[in-house]
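Researcher: Quick test of sequence recovery. Tokens follow.
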């Protein structure tokens, strides 16, 4: 469906990952071997927390309906800023129209959210799911995607207090409504959520056959594995990236996030927790 990347660590020039990596996100937009679609050219988005802002401050976003490989503004911005936490997404539209308000990541206050996947038969369940959004949050839904509806459902169910529990409740609601409408496998996806301090990356589908998701091994370990890799000098010891597919071909640099799991990246490092929805 789509490809995405999320980074957390020392402030970094986003272009290092989004543009310059061996198999960067922009390169994945043209050639995505592990994706459901090889080409992801239906727009993109980039959201970042400025390096000079307080932790958990308001992020900035940039969205475009241009293909990521053809947008000069993306190149300018990702080389001009430095950020300790940023999210980027290239889109392959399944059904909703190609417009800026449908490009990820989505933002609410200090939160960013993005999704690779779909809510199956969304036109059948859209009304019920939309009506389940808190009325105070509903005016903030600007686009027409299932992903943005899911984000606002998670906000409704307490994302700002407990992102893991809130997304589980939101997915439970989607699966319940889907079952009422005869949808066999309502949810497919990998999801990224951040408040500017912590990054949560989820891998879950109703069917148990979720799109690919990986995160990098910690940098000190990588330096021991590849002492001659000059590119590692660009990263601090706390740098971690979560990706739809690996950014390079070096063995052992990325590990797959298991099915029904949330990877949590925070100031203490990274850890995996079971993501039990039912």
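Model:
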């Amino acid at each position: 469906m789509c490809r995405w990347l999320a980074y957390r660590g020392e402030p970094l020039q986003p272009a290092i990952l989004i543009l310059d990596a061996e198999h960067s996100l922009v390169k994945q937009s043209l050639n995505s071997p592990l994706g459901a679609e090889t080409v992801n050219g239906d727009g993109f988005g980039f959201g970042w927390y400025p390096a000079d802002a307080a932790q958990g401050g308001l992020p900035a976003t940039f969205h475009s309906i241009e293909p990521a490989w053809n947008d000069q503004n993306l190149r300018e911005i990702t080389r001009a800023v430095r950020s300790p936490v940023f999210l980027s997404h290239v889109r392959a539209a399944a059904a909703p129209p190609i417009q800026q308000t449908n490009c990820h990541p989505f933002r609410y206050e200090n939160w960013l959210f993005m999704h690779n996947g779909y809510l199956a038969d969304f036109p059948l369940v859209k009304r019920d799911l939309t009506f389940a959004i808190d009325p105070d949050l509903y005016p903030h839904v600007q686009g027409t995607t299932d992903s943005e509806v899911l984000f606002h459902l998670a906000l409704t169910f307490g994302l700002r207090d407990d992102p893991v529990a809130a997304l589980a409740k939101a997915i439970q609601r989607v699966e319940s409504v889907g079952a009422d409408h005869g949808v066999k496998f309502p949810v497919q996806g990998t999801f990224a959520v951040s408040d500017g301090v912590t990054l949560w990356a989820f891998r879950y589908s109703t069917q148990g056959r979720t799109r690919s998701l990986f995160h990098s091994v910690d940098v000190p370990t990588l330096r021991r594995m590849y002492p001659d890799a000059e590119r590692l000098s660009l990263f601090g010891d706390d740098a971690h990236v979560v990706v739809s597919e690996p950014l390079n071909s070096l063995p052992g640099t990325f590990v797959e996030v298991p099915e029904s799991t949330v990877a949590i990246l925070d100031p203490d490092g990274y850890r995996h927790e079971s993501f039990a929805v039912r």
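The chain has a mean pLDDT of 93.
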